[in-house]
Amino acid sequence: MRQIFLDTETTGLEHKLGHRIIEIGCVEMRNRRLTDRHFHCYLNPERDIDAGALSVHGISLEFLQDKPRFADIAADFLDFVRGAELIIHNAAFDVGFLNAELARLDLAPLETVCHGVHDTLRMAKDLHPGKKNNLNALCERYAVDNSHRTLHGALLDAEILAEVYMAMTRGQESLIMELGNDKTSQAESANQAHNGDQRRSQLIMRASADELAQHEILLAAIQKESRGKCLWLAGESAT
Questions:
Q1: Do 115 and 84 form a contact (C-beta atoms < 8 A)?
Q2: What does DSSP say about strands 85-88 and 116-119: parallel, antiparallel, or unpaired?
Q3: Which range has the worst mean pLDDT, 16-20, 39-43, 187-191, 206-210?
Q4: Is residue 150 scored above 80 in pLDDT?
Q5: Which residues are annotated as a binding site for substrate?
Q6: What pLDDT band is residue 233 in, cutting at 50, 70 and 90?
Q7: Which domains are delineated in the chain?
Q8: Which of 1, 23, 149, 218 is most exposed, with the fewest beta carbons within 10 Å of its own?
Q9: What CA–CA distance (Å, rounded) separates 99 from 105?
């Protein structure tokens, strides 16, 4: 799966009141590894920036005067995210602004271009109900260094979000890896006992009743830790 971590900065909080995007930052991940590809641009919003928004990101209208309009970069942006899963913190905010920009150009909504949108804020609330789940709080909770984040910035926040997401989803990955290592060790031990140091082609190891029981216990643990999102069990139910 190709994943894109995305963040925006805007002139204000409400796209329905005519506020616009002034910065887009995206970083690409493939197979849980960040690539060298990213998309980043500042945009001329053709309107004033609210004082509250300016205090958050520090991007002035004067700085944006010679920057491109959204219409100028729309095609390149859509090409970058096309077919990917978008991972966004508080996705409703960013997607709402992006769709408003696309609608001004009579273009289809973002969801029709990408492979889906995953909201890490919703994910964090499920994992940590009743706690602060903004990006700074998650960085502290998962020991992600954000000391260089003095102001919000779309590209920097997208990069930090990628690290936070990896930390948030590492539990299930670790359990699966542990399961794989256990099975590998059992297979290697049985193979050596049967053949000494010789390898035997097409050796099939059948799981014992005890191993199957341990497997079910591990799947139940994964299902509990991931709050019902164990992919193995989902695949079994689908078949």
A1: yes
A2: parallel
A3: 187-191
A4: no
A5: 7, 9, 57, 157
A6: low
A7: 2-168 (3.30.420.10), 171-238 (no CATH)
A8: 1
A9: 10
Torsion, Cα of 38, 47, 17, 101 (10° steps): -40
Residues of the binding site for a divalent metal cation:
7, 9, 157
Contact between 11 and 48 under an 8 Å Cβ cutoff? The reply is yes
The span from the first CA to the last CA of the chain, in angstroms, equals 21
- Residue pair 46/22 in contact (Cβ under 8 Å)? The answer is no
In tens, the pLDDT along 189-198 reads 444 444 444 4
Instruction: Name the residue among 186, 180, 189, 185 with its Cα closest to residue 218.
Output: 180
Tokens describing residue 54: 């300016």
Question: Which parts are annotated binding residues?
Answer: 7, 9, 57, 157
Q: Which of 113-117, 131-135, 195-199 has the lowest mean pLDDT?
A: 195-199
The pTM assigned to this predicted structure is 0.71
Which one-letter DSSP state was computed for residue 239? -
pLDDT the model gives residue 213:
65
- Residue position matching structure tokens 């990006």: 135
Token readout for 122 is 């919703």
The rounded distance, in Å, linking the Cα atoms of 142 and 200 is 45
Q: Both tokens of residue 136?
A: 């700074």
Greatest alpha-carbon span in the chain: 76
So which residues are the catalytic ones? 152
DSSP E strands, 81-230: 85-88, 116-119
Q: What angle do CA 100, 102, 108 make, to 5 degrees?
A: 115
Q: What is the pLDDT of residue 171?
A: 63
Alpha carbons 218 and 78: distance in angstroms, whole number: 41
